[in-house]
User: Which sequence fits this backbone?
């Protein structure tokens, strides 16, 4: 089963809003990554984090590696329609060798 | 720059048939990964290669699945015989390796949607 809990599972955005999602685990992770997947496509790497406390930005996206190494969050500022998609967190679990473990995803939709 | 290329994009086959999925990684990347994505289990690593050598195949579900990488620019994932529960989207990804950071920065192909009836 999955060891990364992503929340929320889905969310609606209105253009211009800031949105936030997070990933938590009961285990310690050494690396966190955030991906975005559009329908019919593969995941695209957005941000990679390698040290506890690290805060990294990529345009309107900001992600942080939690200080406890058990969580990470992703913020999207001033959302636009093309931000719609599924966002996945992924981490390298300390005891799991080199494999990445993926969260269940946060589906971002546009408010009707 | 060409990304990871996968073929076919869609495959529909009958139970018991052999299925072969193909992948061309990004040129110069040392690592190649095969993932499977389903609604129930999300994204799961099946196997990965370093310099064409399989390193970890512990995610391969059973003996019906096999993967090869005969050279740096081509890999196959074969299912024989296929079963309905193999229906999923199969992704190939590659990374540059050479450092821990580059290993984890994996670039995914568009995927092959497999339906086994």
Assistant:
């Amino acid at each position: 089963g999955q060891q990364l809990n992503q929340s929320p599972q889905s969310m609606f955005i209105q253009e211009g809003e800031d949105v936030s999602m997070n990933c938590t685990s009961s285990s310690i992770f050494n690396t966190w990554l955030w991906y975005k997947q559009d329908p019919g496509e593969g995941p695209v790497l957005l941000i990679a984090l390698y040290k506890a406390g690290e805060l990294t930005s990529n345009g309107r996206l900001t992600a942080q590696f939690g200080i406890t190494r058990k969580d990470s969050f992703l913020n999207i500022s001033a959302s636009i329609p093309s931000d719609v998609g599924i966002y996945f967190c992924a981490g390298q679990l300390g005891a799991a060798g080199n494999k990445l473990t993926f969260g269940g995803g946060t589906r971002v939709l546009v408010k009707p | 720059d060409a990304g990871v290329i996968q073929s076919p994009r869609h495959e529909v086959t009958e139970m018991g048939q052999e299925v072969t999925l193909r992948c061309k990684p990004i040129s110069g990347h040392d690592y190649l990964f095969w993932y499977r994505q389903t609604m129930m289990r999300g994204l799961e690593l099946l196997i990965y290669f370093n310099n064409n050598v399989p390193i970890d195949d512990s995610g391969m579900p059973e003996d019906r699945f096999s993967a090869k990488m005969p050279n740096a620019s081509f890999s196959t994932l074969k299912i024989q015989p296929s079963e309905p529960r193999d229906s999923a989207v199969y992704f190939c990804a590659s990374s540059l390796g050479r450092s821990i950071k580059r290993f984890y920065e994996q670039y995914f192909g568009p995927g092959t949607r497999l339906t086994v009836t």
